[in-house]
Design brief:
two-stranded antiparallel sheet, Thioredoxin-like_sf, Glutaredoxin, four-stranded mixed sheet, 6 strands, Thioredoxin family protein, alpha+beta
Length: about 160
């Protein structure tokens, strides 16, 4: 009987750990109002002189989760994003495809997932990035991601950056 209880206890601990890990990986929220979240990010970006970085994908997308692990686990990328962007994760799943939002962003889903959209501080789309160009091996290249972020940052698009 003790052996059965011990096995049962180990099983319960395992199930709880798996459930906790799955909950942590809920990066995308089908129930979220993506348009409101984007608008709030634009307002904050305008005040802080940043751009808006929209990551579109779903919890079903391993590449979406890997990208997020890279940019939150790499201090250089994390700090660069915090200084230059307001981040919004827009869900795309069978529960909610956010079709109206994606139409307003000119159909970025055509590139697959994850896909990234950069908005300026006025909320205008200035770039859509196919994430396949940032891949390396079974993930994304920190170097390529940083270069992409630098090329679409507020400083990169500020005419003052190019005056002699």
């Amino acid at each position: 009987m003790k052996k059965i209880l011990g096995i049962f206890f180990i099983y319960i601990v395992f199930v709880l750990q798996v459930a906790a890990q799955q909950e942590r990986q809920k990066l995308y929220h089908p129930e979220a109002d993506a348009q409101s979240e984007i608008q709030a990010a634009v307002e904050k970006a305008k005040k802080e002189r940043k751009h808006v970085f929209i990551q579109i994908g779903g919890n079903w997308c391993v590449w979406c989760l890997r990208f997020n692990e890279l940019v939150t686990g790499n201090d250089t990328l994390k700090n660069y994003i915090q200084r230059n962007y307001e981040v919004v994760h827009v869900n795309y799943s069978k529960e909610n495809k956010n079709e109206a939002v994606l139409a307003s962003l000119e159909y970025p889903q055509r590139f697959g997932f994850p896909v990234f959209v950069i908005l300026n501080e006025k909320g205008n789309r200035i770039h859509t990035q196919n994430s396949a160009y940032l891949e390396e091996g079974k993930g994304h290249s920190a170097k390529k991601v940083l270069e992409f972020l630098e090329n679409w940052s507020p400083t990169a698009l500020d005419p003052k950056s190019y005056k002699q």
